[in-house]
Protein 1
Amino acid sequence: MTVFLVSTSSAFFVILYSMDWGAEKSDSWMKAFILSFMGSSCVVDTLQIVVLAVVLSAVCSLPFLTKPPAIRKEDLQLNLWNSAAPKKIRPPTKANCQAARKKRELSKKSASTLLEFLLLLIFVAVLFYIAQTNNDQRAFYETRTLSNTILREFDEIRTPDQFYMWTEEVLLPTLYPSVWYNGRKMKFLDRQFAQNTESFRVGPPRLVQVRRRLGATTWENGAGLGWNRYLQNTSYSCWRFAVPDLLNHPNHTSNCTNHHSLDLPLHHDTAVAFFRSLKDSEFLDKYTKSLAIDINFYNPSLKLFSVVHIVLDHTGVGNLVPKATITSFGLFQYESDADYMNLLIHIIFTLLFSVMIFKEAKAVRNMGWQYFISGWNVLGCLSLVGTATVISVFIKRYTVASDTLALVAKSNGELGFERFVDLTTAAWWDACFAHIMGIVVFINNIALLRVVRFSQTVAKLLALPSIMKNELMSFLVIAAVAFMSFISAAFLIFGSHLESYSDMYRTTFALFEMMLGRFFANDMLEANPLIGPIFFSAFMICIFTLLMNFLMSIICDAISADVDVELDQDLAEHMWNSVCAKFGMHSPPSKEEEPGKTTATPDSS
């Protein structure tokens, strides 16, 4: 009762003081109170106890304060006088020898397993570090900045006139800025930077048009004014773009081919006149299959190159279909101190990879073809093959990056980069390295389960596919038929109204998102007010509610099933007992190891 009254009165006065002080002063008081209480109880009192213990132990251990214990000779030899030595010492029994041999084998096996686990863990950790250092997080912001500036209103292009209007109003002012935001004129070198970005152009942009191939003896009308048919021989003919205003252009390619490339001028006014000439000569006509624009950028502060690939597809439909990709990547390697640290990590990774290959080769030599029967061994081989592929792709990417940097350096003139440099190959190898690295990291993380498969929990988890294979196969057949039915229906109902259902791939992805709980019901209702609600309700009931619950039931039944799994229980118990013994926790011996259970046979002699 006294404690309750004291606590209530203290809390009452604290509330009154907090109302009088205000929120800010009350928070400051509460922080000061908590910090002082924690500092006094956790730091000051602990230090006082430690210092006092050290001082007392130092004082009590002085030579003149210590006395040796007084032990009488009679008490020391009392037990020895009353005991007698055995007449004959017998060897350990057969059961004890088998237990000791088994314990010794388990100790060696556990040490080998622990060493294998540590080696694989270090290998995966180094691989994960290399993957993270290769992935520059700033590339996302660079890509987003270029997308917001260069690709503005690009998705709205449907006709050639809209394309030429977009180039004149958005693309050219962004690529060739002339004034700052305050109206001041830019210097020549500043004009190479794209508008509102920190990236400058590496060479002029390039236009590449792919045209439909003509027949050898038939002439089809309706081509643009600047396009002529060139008959190379009796069996092959091609297009030639011949415009008087563009023939004097030094970068104009007029070879007989169905792929035509043009490099844009380096100045804004000349580029505007260049596109107007293309428009007047009908550069885009009904025989155009696709038109691509490649633009290269470099951000000095981030040391990242970017490739902007703009495509207008004219195949299959009457309108132009705009597509664009922006890829940011690095070409400079081993320049700063951090890069040389990464070089050291690469060398360590190569050494670890050599050790892993030697270990697996030794296992294959000892076991022969029996080694490949186990699925875990096959997974280990796939991991090594993938790692070797990563190393090979890394070397190829490094050589391609070096060659590309040499080409970029050659294209640099007195007034900036004057020639177009194709960075597509370097970007492709960088993306290839990133994708393969992701797959290899995933495989190696799964391979970690290979070492700890003796655990009962892990063994039960790995045995789930075999436990529920019959029910799962039946479920997958039914789910595949139902899902394909909904995909076909969604593509036919919403394909002409919603972009996310415009083709089978996007429809599959959209319905998979709906199955996971992410959907946009309003768009479906607006696209088809009559069939949309029926389709949405049927999908949510059949797929999201029924089939997903069926799958969860199958998994839960498999987890709760009482089945025998293959695991080394003795090894797991031995490793657990060893770990507990390291921390001073000893478990009672098993019945097989109790010394009193087995008795030695009497000597017949």
Note: The chain has 19 helices and ten strands.
Protein 2
Amino acid sequence: MRLHCHGLFLPLYSSPVKHIHFQCRHCSTQWSREHSLTLDCTLNPCVISASWLGSISDSRAPPIACLSTPLLIHNSTVHMTTASAPPETLFALTISDHSRVKLVLDTKFLFLDYLQPRTSSNIACFSPVACLSPGSAVDDESSQQCSIPYFNILYADVTPPNTTTSLINYGTLSLDYCIVTGADAPITANERKAKLARLAFHIDAQSAPAAAAFAAALMARAYNAAVGCIAQKRLLVFVNPFGGKGKAIRRFRAGALPVLEVARCKLNIVETKYRNYALEYVENTQGLEELYDGIVCCSGDGIPHEVFNGLAHRSTGPDRAFKIPVCQIPCGTGNALAKNLCGTMDPAYAALCTVKGAPTPIDLCIFTQNGKSSVSFLSQAIGLIADVDLGTEHMRWMGNARVTVGLLQRVFAHKSYALDAQVRIVHDSRDQIRRAHKKHTARPVTITPDSPDLDSSSAEAWPDLKYGDGTDDIPEDWVTLDTSNISLFYVGKMPWMAFDALFFPAALPRDGYMDLVTVDATIPTFEILSIMSGVAEGKHFESDHVKYYKCDAYRVTPTGQEGYVSIDGEKFDYAPFQVEVKKRLGTVLSYQPIYQAPAI
């Protein structure tokens, strides 16, 4: 009898065989026939144990054959026949030592089961058919398992074998993915990081169609088109060469670009040349909506601010333009958008989130001053925060330390600010805010386009202003706050204002509200320092000296002689302004429909 094993003929037994018994080691299917037999097994490869029965006087232990396709036994010769493997399971060989690997598509993971024969007398036939020598037990095989979440997988591809040669040839199944660390660490720890990795396996000619089907099935699970996540995204990438103390380009090229390229994204990389360059590019580029699946900002928070405002003024209409999703690779100083969407300051991990992101609607704010309206995606500040943010521009050489130094200088100088503020308050108690936050975040965290919470068709239009442009009379249901002597007046639409500033822990992406924090300047200095030191983990939310509101509109009139107004970190006139929320007006590229912030 001979075993025909992918072109290799391995003599196993020379005596006549009258009866053979077969059993699959995985599904336990048994066959027992004389002379001729067709085997059908639900698994691929089917691992068969063959035992000699009948009129055989040889007392040797049965040989074992590990087969990648069903067998046709005829005239005492075993021939391979072709069978299509189910796409959920595939067997391949490691390239280094040709050990068998079983790849299985699970619900959330790709499982890899490295099957290593324990016997030292393995017959090396260099194919997915591992033929063990006589004397091996049926289950004498060890298993080393590992798994890769579909979120981590970037690309799967099959290179078919060269069938024009008579030599044994193999194709290659390649898997590009990211090794992610810190995913289980607290979101405040900033430990989420990603590193590129690759796995490659040999496949034989007969397994090539099954391998191609498997790779396609894997890609379909890695990129769930049903929720809007597409592979090989077409991305417009803005890189601010001046961001991050001039290190933005290097951070992008070293960390983010390799991930985007391995994922086969189609990139148009544009370096900004001056302030508002991205705004002008987005506003004036023809066919932007058809050309790109997303806009990536490799910068601090200034470029996203420009992009959103560029979308607002496109001639195609802002309602259509705002459907283009925006995201950020953290290459600047603030990087708040990346922190809120990805929970990281690592460019590679942010790039992975970009690759795996789906269009997700968010609320935007409309800032109106001197008859002109602008989009604010992040925050508005007047008082201490605006002073520290904009009044320390001359200290940018210090990096993130300038914020700490500027804050201490002003706190110890007992700096205070005066303004008039009228606010349309929706919630003013911690209990109300907690209940609303819990109700919102208790929803499933899987993006589904038909979810009412994610339905962008209910987006409010731009630039229709529900409460006017700030020159109208104050509505009766607005409340005047006591802000004649304050330290903080800070409004946010996202939880994180920087990688270490969880200023608005109750902020939500689509609740239709802004979060307002005020702190009176009359409290002791050490209390202000205590409040600011607790911002990194959102502990100030519990302080009795912090007033925390949910509102959907407000108006501010500065009464001091000089100061700063900061909108998304950008400088605006120190003059009266009004802000209101537009529900679901904007779109971001996010892998989860909620912001990456701890529960309150």
Note: The chain has 13 helices and 32 strands.
Protein 3
Amino acid sequence: MLPCFPSKVRSSSPESPPANTMESKEKRRGGLRTMPFILATDVCDRFAATGFSSNMITYLTQVLHMPMVQASNTLTNFAGTAALTPLIGGLIADSFAGRFWTIAVASVIYQLGMLCLTLSAILRGTRPPPCSGQQPCQEASTGQLWILYFSLLLTSIGSGGLRPCVVAFGADQLDLSKSKKTKDKTSNFFNWYYFCMGVASLLALTLVVYIQDNVGWGWGLGVPTIVMTISVVVFLLGYPLYVFYRPSGSPLTRLTQVVVAAIRKRSAIRPNDGNELYQNREMDASISITGRLLHSDQYKCLDRAAIITERDFTEGGNPKPWRLSTVHRVEELKSIIRTLPVWAATILLVTASSHQNTFSIQQARTMDRHLVGSFKIPPATMNVFTILSLLITLALYDHVIVPLREKYASKPVKWSYFRRMGIGMGVSILSTFVAGFVEVKRKNAAAQAGLLSQPRTTIPISVFWLIPQYSLHGISEAFTHVGHLQFLYDQSPESMRSFGIALFWIAISLGNYLSTLVVSLVHKYTGKEHNWLPNHNLNKGRLEYYYWFITGLQIVNLGYYIICTLFYTYKPLEVAPLENQANGVDGNGHVELAASGVNEREIRDPEVGAARSV
């Protein structure tokens, strides 16, 4: 499942180390001691990524002189590509490379992209000359844009290896702890993960953005590049402490084999008793380390892949994988299919939040940004309020909301990820709704001051009117994104958790691409005279209509999400006893599951976070 290193498969011969020796070696691997290395790595990565991209709309419009809509679409396309590549990275990690090496190599590629863009900001020939007087600004040439796109492509490829693997790699370090506490530990890990990411983003939005706006883009992009180098070193230093799960082969191959086998047996009669379907514990050992998936009654057409016929075995008695799949492998495919409707509901949430780094920053640039005396807040620093509200919400959730819920509830349970995501979606609706009214107030202030035709003149209205929409967005992210990560990690098959986390980033990718499509269509079909999203003068636009249009779409999306959660079926998991899990850890920290059977059957209830015997 996780990073792979060349080593021999653990054997059950008498030469194997005694159980107590294996137990002592296991205790030296994984656990909370690995968290400083993993979280510090991702903190550095998030600091670099946020400092690199949060103010990029300013770089594109003020340095490369791109029109606003083109710059907005460039950023959302880049964000979409960067969020799409984790699917490839997750498959590479789960199939053969392992998460450790995927993270290490991806970090280097990401750093190369940052270095290229930093050099383009320093060298004169790689950017157009500054604007002079009232003359039209010279836009970047084709060659200069190609340097930009190549740099962004490298960072997108690097993101593909980092994003799906770092989260899952960290959570897996806690997976070998006491089984009844595993749910709480992984839930807390996701909270801490997102909290640390928030702190890193906060530092980047204050320090790096200030350097970019007041010192220069060379240092403004160079600082994140240096920090990214530190993240690689810190991650490698933790190598002796990590637990490594062996990659179990391409999950896409297994899923395809299930589909092909089911099609080949489409005329076969499905038995009434699910116990008559094919099961092979030894065959599934490497992909069922902590437990085995049980048969479910959903998507019965796929069960045909596990129907046993005479033609399904070789002369040596081995099953033909393209004709016969085990129940566990069939249920892997079912588990992924079950998550898709809920997963799809998060796409529009990303579309709604994408304006925080584009149109909202352009709004802030036109407003009075004075804080103390002559000190002016950089427009992109307004995202600080998103991060602050996110951090406060995460802290209150863990230390106030959950304890109160457990104290006064009829039974001590934590809020499920479905409730958490639903709350976040509701807050996101409120965020875009409020944003529309703030835009109306901003334009009214411009009209009263006679500045509607002067897009570069500061409007006499405080930039702090934008705080509500930024803060509500942070609260929404604290609920929705953390719940979404926990949902995908928990409901994905254990051998496909990198793939599951990659789905989180694919939703972000599709959300950004959808934002590009919506912005392009709105810009094209809302006329020239009163265009909702004009290229050069936001004061004459109808940005509030765009916000309210997105609000309406989100209301419909929330209704769809509620329906999906009401009919969702959790994956049925037979939990392996703790001693069976421990027996799979060798002295090098690699994890395998012994071929011995499971002595006790337990089904984990995701709502309660505990296992019950059956």
Note: Residues 1-26, 176-180, 578-614 have pLDDT under 50 and may be disordered.
